[in-house]
Amino acid sequence: MAGERFLPAYVGLGSNLDDPAGQLRRALASLAGLPATRLLCASSFYRSPPLGPASQPDYLNAVAGLLTTLPPLELLAALQAIETAQGRRRDGERWGPRTLDLDLLLHGGARLASAALTLPHPGLRERAFVLVPLAEIAPGLRLPDGALVARLAGAVDAAGLQRLAA
């Protein structure tokens, strides 16, 4: 890693199956163990209504802040390996229930649009369950377009989002 530069990256975590709080805690431990990566911080856990089918349990969500030398697609592959290890099945149901969902939200100032990954995450600006925990750990963070995370979090509809006690 000599000469490699650490970049900040932010990961959204979500779970609504098989002990969601435990799933998030295990995912954070796995993030802390990733090579060439340091887990700097994690938000509180938040309960939120499901984005997809309403017949599923509420989600628990959080955001983790990392420093990493991994390129975006390598970090994405590592996130997907953590999901798989924790029982994530990709059965084609969009926004359905899941043991673990890890979304790469931001990677340095990267802007990327590929079949595998879009950065910043395309739902970042509209989702209270991402913006509110992100603003908790990085209120002064600016998106690549200059938008201030704290301002976006203050403007998003956070109805139904509940911060859980530690």
Describe the secondary structure blueprint for this structure:
Elements: E1 7-15, H1 20-32, E2 37-42, E3 46-48, E4 59-68, H2 72-85, E5 101-107, E6 112-113, E7 118-119, H3 128-137, H4 149-155, E8 162-163
Antiparallel strand pairs: 1-4, 1-5, 2-4, 3-4, 3-8, 6-7
Helix pairs in contact: 3-4
Account of the 3D structure:
- The protein is an alpha+beta fold and 166 residues long.
- It has a single domain, classed as 7,8-Dihydro-6-hydroxymethylpterin-pyrophosphokinase HPPK (Alpha-Beta Plaits), CATH 3.30.70.
- Helices cover 27% and strands 25% of the residues.
- It has helices spanning 20-32, 72-85, 128-137, 149-155, and strands at residues 7-15, 37-42, 46-48, 59-68, 101-107, 112-113, 118-119, 162-163.
- Strands 1, 2, 3, 4, 5 and 8 form a six-stranded antiparallel beta sheet that branches. A two-stranded antiparallel ribbon has the order 6-7.
- The longest helix is centred in the middle third of the chain and has 14 residues, at 72-85.
- It is globular.
- The termini are far apart.
